[in-house]
Amino acid sequence: MIETMIRIRMSQQDAHYGGNLVDGARILGLFGDIATEILIRHDGDEGLFVAYDEVTFKAPVYAGDFIEAVGRLKRVGNTSRKIVFEAYKVIEAVHDPDRPYLGRVLKEPILVASASGTCVVPKNR
Fold it and tell me: Which stretches of the chain are DSSP H helices?
């Protein structure tokens, strides 16, 4: 089955809460982009995201963190496509006001969110 990945740095614009905390909706946006790529690769059509079956946020994400989001096509129905997602923090910002430019590569990525969802494509695809 198809798997795809996006790696992106969370910016100050992504920070939504105090302490530069990134809104979980930002991660769901990455999952949506991954689903779109998977559907285009599999069906040649962007399709539509119908529903998330499950979403779990496991760890905080901050401005300056690098997130690697992965999606896998798990099941293909007549018009439906089941996709599972995971997002990992691979580099974290060091929160030192005197040295805001510091970052730390994580030896082990941290799972920050997981989800599963269903998308649909036109029947002729």
Answer: 24-43
